[in-house]
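Design request, tokens follow.
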């Protein structure tokens, strides 16, 4: 009996030691506040670091925040030279029949890509969205496939697009995490900010050339300091959704709220997330893609030196007050041998925080530089001789 009692006391001691540890972990996992929505997320746009999460991998109907991917593909098509803002897009019968929010485009009507992008980014027009997709891919179905392909490339593992505009459709689902990924990618395109930050504008549509007023569906553009995007969404299935972004100083944060019970709550929730980011974190910009870092001597090349640039953006996220603790080391050799290709690595930038590495990016050649020919070498020798004679 005494032996059993000792065993029981031993178990009680073990349990008493484990319980405080479990409580500590539970406290660490507790969010600093709650957002009244099924899913919510705060991401640092510069580094992709997630600073707040609530059910961020739960697959939900996204409504019109779907259009973030549509706008991204449009901007990438412009950057690739496939289309221009002045392109004339013909509105199809299918595009004109889209329900919900629209520009009331007519079949056969011709509008520029820029006019359609205004309609998508500011008013969230479903007909303009379909017209853009058809202009880029030829058909709506092919454009949806492009959307899904791009989602995979961005690591949006829980997303399936069924249409371009977010109207309710079975299986049309994404997550707060995936919305943040495509939002971050869209914000890299400077041109898109023209429309994302426009509060009011007009567009002329229809055969009768009627002027329509456009008012941004994202009211944070008007009410939140530094707001610069991105997209609202609502259907009876999705409830109220929002991907919001704001920039202050070097910091840009993305707040995603999905399935909020009201429009007011989605905006206040996003503002709360952004406030949390700006109050507690800061982004230190070390280098931007294509920034010139220095010049490196080139041995036996057609040029005597190459321009060395940063391969990618390098941003470091720190707690407020730790900005000065970030140190940078630039590693460049005194010379490299030709030939060297554009993007060829010649060095590195390394960032440290309190002595620990927190990020790095390559330094690369800005251009292709071939090896010098015998005539190049003789020409240089002749120039030096003539220069010495003078």
């Amino acid at each position: 009996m005494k032996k059993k009692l000792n065993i029981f006391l031993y178990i009680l001691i073990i349990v008493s030691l484990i319980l405080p540890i479990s409580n500590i972990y539970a406290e660490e996992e507790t969010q600093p506040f709650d957002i009244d929505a099924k899913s919510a997320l705060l991401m640092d746009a510069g580094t992709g670091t997630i600073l707040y999460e609530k059910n961020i991998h739960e697959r939900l109907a996204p409504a019109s925040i779907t259009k973030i991917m549509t706008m991204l593909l449009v901007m990438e098509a412009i950057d690739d030279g496939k289309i221009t803002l002045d392109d004339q897009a013909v509105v199809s019968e299918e595009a004109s029949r889209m329900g919900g929010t629209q520009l009331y485009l007519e079949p056969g009507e011709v509008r520029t890509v820029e006019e359609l992008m205004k309609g998508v980014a500011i008013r969230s027009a479903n007909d303009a969205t379909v017209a853009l997709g058809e202009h880029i891919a030829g058909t709506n179905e092919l454009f949806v496939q492009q959307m899904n392909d791009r989602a995979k490339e961005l690591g949006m593992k829980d997303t399936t697009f069924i249409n371009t505009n977010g109207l309710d459709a079975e299986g049309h689902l994404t997550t707060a995490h995936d919305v943040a990924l495509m939002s971050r990618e869209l914000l890299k395109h400077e041109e898109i900010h023209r429309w994302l930050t426009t509060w009011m504008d007009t567009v002329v549509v229809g055969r009768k050339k009627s002027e329509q007023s456009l008012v941004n569906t994202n009211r944070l553009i008007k009410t939140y300091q530094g707001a610069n995007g991105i997209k609202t969404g609502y259907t009876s299935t999705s409830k109220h959704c929002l991907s919001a972004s704001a920039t202050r100083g070097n910091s840009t944060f993305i707040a995603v709220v999905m399935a909020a019970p009201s429009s007011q709550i989605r905006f206040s929730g996003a503002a709360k997330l952004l406030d949390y980011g700006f109050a507690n974190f800061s982004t230190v910009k070390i280098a931007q893609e294509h920034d010139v870092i220095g010049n490196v001597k080139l041995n036996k090349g057609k040029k005597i030196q190459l321009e060395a640039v940063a391969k990618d953006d390098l941003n470091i996220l720190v707690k407020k007050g730790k900005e000065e603790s970030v140190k940078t080391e630039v590693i460049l050799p005194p010379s490299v041998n030709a030939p060297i290709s554009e993007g060829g690595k010649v060095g590195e930038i390394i960032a440290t925080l309190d002595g620990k590495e927190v990020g790095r990016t390559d330094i690369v050649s800005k251009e292709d530089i071939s090896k010098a020919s015998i005539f190049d070498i003789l020409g240089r020798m002749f120039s030096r001789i003539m220069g010495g004679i003078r």
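Comment from the thread starter after seeing the answer: thanks! The radius of gyration is 27 Å.
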